[in-house]
Amino acid sequence: MRRVGLVRVALGIQALLAGITRVGLARYVAGPDDYRADGTSRWDAYDRKSLTVTAVVVGLVVAVLALVLFVWPQRRFYPLLGLAGIGAAMLIFSAFFANSLN
User: Which of these, 52, 33, 39, 24, lies nearest to 102 by C-alpha position?
Assistant: First the structure.
């Protein structure tokens, strides 16, 4: 496989993972909080709205940027996208964790 082909596969995987985890976070936060057992959603139960919204938006931005670079490869932006992907992953993990603290 050519190097460009491998990079495009990695970009596609990064976009897919950012999109899946972003949607997963939104569904998790909208779901009921098992600890309370009264149907209260995690969105209402925990005061982590700004962190959650930021994580979802950053995940969306990283997914869109990865898809754009998948279609129009620009090598100079790969390191920045890698750092953005790491930042998005940290934010999404932090939001999952913050919305599960009891």
Answer: 33
